[in-house]
């Protein structure tokens, strides 16, 4: 008789759980959800310990907590679960991965490159920094962000520097909210984005920056924010932000993100 028999599938199992825990940790790192997660984890360890010591009374009480625990976790982590599923859906969007359009684009320009005219975007951001015009521009990659597009005004317009400048002009009714660029079109303006709960964002940044970070936490899009107060550019990708970058750096970041032509 062997004491511990480890099959290949057990190793796969352990690896899978470790990977999911790692992804979960990355998703909730820097948010209050991490503290709740640590609390739940400690509770489970404590519960297992009590069970293994066969402490009947404590174990009966804790068993009742655990029985309703799954429901409680769904309620407490409602936002995180939603973000996690959104992330899975947008990262592995089958429609986009196998569309004919992408197939032919891939052949003509090399894999990973998106059909986005970044020059007018960069030029408009340059103008925004000089004139201290607040702006929030989201550029989609695989996921088209239709849920968010529909919260604003549908434009479907060719990307142009002057159009972007007009949209974010202070007296324009569309200047509030985000512009979403999808492929080579300004898809919509005045869009409402999810606001990040990340506590790592410096306090001086407000909702515009949090919205820029928020959309990149749950999708594969990138976001550019120009601050109205300071005229500084920030760039967000995968839920991480780089603050106060130059126009040249912005162009490089967009190219590195595969958004070039
Ligand atoms: N959830 C959101 N989705 C899209 N846009 C938003 C959202 N929340 C705020 N905004 C935009 O941000 C503007 C307010 O920005 P706020 O002053 O809080 O941002 P900030 O990060 O401090 O940037 P700034 O330096 O430009 O003031 C709003 O007028 C609106 O246009």
Automatic annotation (TrEMBL):
Q: Quote the gene name from the UniProt entry.
A: dacA
- Per the record, the coiled-coil ranges are none
Q: Which organism is it from?
A: Thermophagus xiamenensis
Tell me its family. Answer: Belongs to the adenylate cyclase family. DacA/CdaA subfamily.
Gene3D superfamilies annotated for this entry?
DNA integrity scanning protein, DisA, N-terminal domain
What GO MF terms are annotated?
A: adenylate cyclase activity; ATP binding; diadenylate cyclase activity
Q: Which GO terms describe its biological process?
A: cAMP biosynthetic process
Pfam entry (one): DAC
Keywords from the UniProt entry: ATP-binding, Cell membrane, Membrane, Nucleotide-binding, Nucleotidyltransferase, Transferase, Transmembrane, Transmembrane helix
Enzyme Commission number(s) from the entry: 2.7.7.85
| Domain annotation DAC: ranges | 78-247
What does this protein's UniProt record list under function? Answer: Catalyzes the condensation of 2 ATP molecules into cyclic di-AMP (c-di-AMP), a second messenger used to regulate differing processes in different bacteria.
Q: Tell me which domain of life the UniProt entry assigns to the organism this sequence originates from.
A: Bacteria
Identification of the protein by name: Diadenylate cyclase
- Reaction catalysed by this enzyme: 2 ATP = 3',3'-c-di-AMP + 2 diphosphate
Q: Which InterPro entries match?
A: C-di-AMP_synthase, CdaA, CdaA_N, DisA, DNA_integrity_DisA_N_sf, DNA_integrity_scan_DisA_N
